[in-house]
Amino acid sequence: MPQAEPSISIRRRRTRRTRNIQQLEAAYASLTHLGTRARSSAPHGKNAWLVHNASLEALLKAHEEALMALRTQIELVNKARKAAQVAAALEVVRLEERWRKAVGPLEVEVAIKAGLEEGRRREAEG
């Protein structure tokens, strides 16, 4: 014989019972946690926690100050590097211009000599 579906009121009671059991389990876990916390903080007390927090804050402040000092040093190094690069670029431009001025007459002289050689060769051939 097939079993009949439980009525709606029975399902509601089971759902409520399950929900109540879950709430009781959560309350027990919370109570256990608070009891453990109370036992562990009793010997040390609130002051130990406050002292520990103060030491952590001091450590954080020291690290933040060190970070700011490093960032300042990085900024100074980058500015010096950029200034050196700009100065080097100006020097390179100056040297290139000097090279062009020095090589220009030499190129003309080489071209003249090549032209003279070509002229002599043609005269010799012809």
Automatic annotation (TrEMBL):
Q: Where in the cell is it found?
A: Nucleus
Tell me which stretches of the chain form a coiled coil. 53-80
Keyword list (alphabetical) reads: Coiled coil, mRNA processing, mRNA splicing, Nucleus, Spliceosome
Question: Alphabetically, which GO biological process terms does the record hold?
Answer: mRNA processing; RNA splicing
> Transferase: is it a keyword of this entry?
no
Domain of life here?
Eukaryota
Query: Has keyword rRNA-binding?
Result: no
Among the entry's GO cellular component annotations, what is one? Answer: Prp19 complex
Protein family according to the UniProt entry: Belongs to the SPF27 family.
Query: What is the name of the protein in this document?
Result: Uncharacterized protein
What lineage is on file?
Eukaryota, Fungi, Dikarya, Ascomycota, Pezizomycotina
